[in-house]
Amino acid sequence: MKPLVVYVAMAADLIHPGHINILKIARELADTLEAKEGVKGEVVLGLLTDKAIASYKRLPYMNYTQRYEVISHLKEVDRVIPQDSLSYENNIRALQPRYVVHGDDWKSGAQSKTRQNVIDTLHELGCGELIEPNYTVGISSTQLNLDARAIGISTNARLSLLRRLINAKTPLRICETHSAISALIAQNSFIEVDGKKLEFDGFWSSSLTDSTSRGKPDIEAVELTSRLNTINEIFEVTSKPLIYDADTGGKLEHFVFSVRSLERTGVSAVIIEDKTGLKKNSLLGNEVEQTQEDIEVFCEKIKAGKNAQITSEFMIIARIESLILEKGQEDALKRAFAYIEAGADGIMIHSRQKTPNEVLAFMKAFRIRDSKTPVIVVPTSFNEITAKELGEAGVNVVIYANHLLRASFIAMKEVVEGILRYDRSKEIETKCMSVKEILSLIPGTI
């Protein structure tokens, strides 16, 4: 006869006494069923996949395999199966459990809809009952996560986050940061949408904003060592992955050393564009002279970079300028597949059009032939389309590439002009964050 199932679902990233309490209750229920009915009672744990967890909160510290290894060795658990979404419904229908066990903390808030779906599914199937033990006082996964984040993140753990995130959710939202304080703002900002936390997934180190924040032109004037100093300052106070804008990557021999330096620092990916010569901003298009690199030469640069990296997690992403330079979709697609063949871990397709039409056309044609390679876009010009809509079109990563720096220019200009106009600072105080708020944002100050 089939075992009598008691079902529990967990992320099981940071195991604490509250989890153990739930599992002990599930074990007791299974043993009682077995004693009463003479049929084996089985505790089945639905382990949420990375994708399921990322759909409503941050990616877990441990990946699914690591969490499985931990949870499957607990004596209270008989079997571990994946739960591929926040909803329990598919596993309940497959298992027909006698009991589903979850703490009573989900009766309100973000998981209340999930709870109701469990009740409705059990009622429809007529197979079991929801058991809700009291929430364990004095312990919180949320607080443990905050404490862990305050301690920091290792270089290797941060480096590998981008690949894990790409595999777990679509699309990723990446925010430009040009300083430690801008990165802190980007990391700590979030909103609630339909009970789910929506936040940025990582940072973009832009050559444009890094050079502009130093008062220098956007012509690769800031060398790698200086930019790495900024990245190290960002990494000291944050825990999210970072993508590095390397412009053309420079000469092949120089790019090899850049890859090693970035990887050693903990950067998750580097993006290089297929242009040659002195850097000119892509949004200028054909208004200035810009030359696209030969496909074969750019492929050799990609291969050299891939051969130079030490870890398998580091990503080299090829940025295609064909649409910017009005060479058409066929040239863009030809280059995309050549760069992937050369070893590129992802493709960035760029456009300066005011609508997303040519990017969407590229995505449609690209995804017919390649459903897996990550695609990155920067919708600075075509800014009416949402990240969600881009994700639905097959885009994996959306980068907001220069907005924090641009916003800071306006804010600072208004403040300095206001002080001059009124000959005092009283009138512009509403445009400034309080010193107390600033201090509370910086770890270790309060």
Automatic annotation (TrEMBL):
Keywords annotated in UniProt: Isomerase
Class of enzymatic activity (EC top level): isomerase
Q: Name one Pfam family in it.
A: CTP_transf_like
Specify the Cytidyltransferase-like domain's residue ranges.
13-143
E.C. no: 5.4.2.9
* Lineage: superkingdom: Bacteria
> Which family is this sequence assigned to?
Belongs to the isocitrate lyase/PEP mutase superfamily. PEP mutase family.
Q: Which NCBIfam families match?
A: cyt_tran_rel, PEP_mutase
Official protein name in the record? phosphoenolpyruvate mutase
- What organism, scientifically named, is this protein from? Helicobacter trogontum
Lineage from the top down? Bacteria, Pseudomonadati, Campylobacterota, Epsilonproteobacteria, Campylobacterales
> What gene, per UniProt, encodes this protein?
aepX
